[in-house]
User: Fold these one by one.
Assistant:
Number 1:
Amino acid sequence: MKFKTFFSLFFLAFFIFFFFAPRKAQAANQTITEKLVQQIEIIKHEISVFQSLISNLKVERGIGAKSYLAVNLSDDSVILEKNPNQSYPLASITKLMSAVVSLENIDKNQTITLTEKMLESSGQSPSLFAGLNISLENLLKASLIQSANDASESLSYFVGKEKFIELMNQKAKELNMANTVFYDAHGLNPANRSTASDIVKLLSYIFENHPEILSITKENNFWLPDSTGTLRKFQNINNFYPLSEFVGGKTGYLPQVKQTLASIFNVNGQQIAIVLLYSDNRQADTFAILKKIRN
């Protein structure tokens, strides 16, 4: 990876975009000061993302996750593994399955009206509020980019919460994910459990059948207005999104399972699925795996 060149070009493009590029969609009632404060906060966050990536890239350590699996999706060959069949809570990796079920059971042109019940889950987003009419696409983006729990919950309530969870578990069976079970659409419930082997099957299915999910997870320029009309950015919480090698995927965190990751990377022209469960540093673990693969 030519990180120095990439980071330099990224920051140049980033500053040009935010300070010079016109934003027709910017709400008229946002003052210049409000917009500037918001943009400064976004820039500070972007800098922290790159600092974290650089710091973890330099870490010399083994792979610390209790369970991990790296698979070449072209032939399903296993490259690296540790306890791939050990079951762990998934956290927000769950949202990959909820995205699949949403795309396969809700009309892509569907507009969904949000209700108070839909928005009860932890982590409410300012741009998702009762009475809002929102497209399936934008709810998926909120769920996958910023990992908005209320967005995932809204999708499940639109189908019918029990029915939606049933469809998630049914899909897991169809994909031969024998050690996987879901109890919610967002991953806050630690009873949502799976194995690295099962999650690779899900990643492979998404890669072949729903590449739009992976494309969404690479985005970091998604905005929606809040109830006052002020545009709010949904920050991508998968810090690998700036890397050209990142094809797409999802991360998660719960105290019971620490950090999780299910992502695909392009390594030397090969699509490599990497799953980490129970990691105390998913960035360092992922870089360690990528280094081993390249070597």
Note: The chain has a mean pLDDT of 86.
Number 2:
Amino acid sequence: MKIKSLIFSPAEGGQIVAGQTTVKGVAFNDGGAAIERVEVSTDGNIWQAAQLQKPSGPFAWSRWTAEVELPAGEHKLQCRAFDTNGKTQPPDGQVHWNPAGYAWNGIHQVSVRTS
């Protein structure tokens, strides 16, 4: 299993109030190296570190949260994980395959609208 992270909240297509927003998700891999950090972006250019919770074991999800400021408008929230071996998620997944499949590990993104 390649390294992967996912945004669980807010949900894809969500309508949320502008301002401070908590983004939540998980990161995981094959258990061969610990998830070292997760980063979140609201614009695809600037990345900020998320707060990472210690998982219960090498194969467990690493839950994370990040506080972001979202002005009114449309946004694409993105997340990417890094492990202690230096592996991370590529922008395009490096696999031309179904994004819902297990082998796909591109940077996950969620579109939301704020008002």
Note: The beta strands are 4-9, 14-16, 19-28, 35-41, 47-49, 51-52, 62-70, 73-83, 108-114.
Number 3:
Amino acid sequence: MKYFELEKEELETLQDYESGDLVPVNNMAKEKRLYESYAKNTLEKTKNINIRLSDKVLHKLKVKAAEQGIPYQTLAASVLHRFANN
């Protein structure tokens, strides 16, 4: 049963794995720790920020968040994340 769509790079990696074309890296344990630290440092760091919004904008943000059933701060963070990654 398929739960998700693979991206092009993921499909290529899967094909390389299935054909036996992948080559193990030297010192796998060290490489694994290195990439785990990259992921941890990327995914776990959050910062608090202060931002000034008009009452009208804050109210609209809270209404939209309530419509989606999520906290308004989560919605604001999501909007900023999408903007920053485009």
Note: The longest helix spans residues 28-43.
Number 4:
Amino acid sequence: MANPDQLRAARALLGLSQPEVAEAAGVSTMTVKRAEGSGKPAASAEAMTAIRKALENRGALFLPSNGHGPGVRLRDRTDGA
């Protein structure tokens, strides 16, 4: 599962607004805010997964912690994906 910092970073890298991510994920804008750590209560695991999948479908890659913390980057557009 992605953490709030990764979700914010992915959205920023893709140049998407919170409403755009919400629409793509099938959740509310408030849910995106909660998932990004700026709302209470926290977003559900199901919402976090839907948001992550929506961002991945747009080209974000979520990287696991490798001793330096988790990260996010854009998919290489030349890899055929």
Note: Residues 22 and 29 are 5 Å apart (CA to CA).
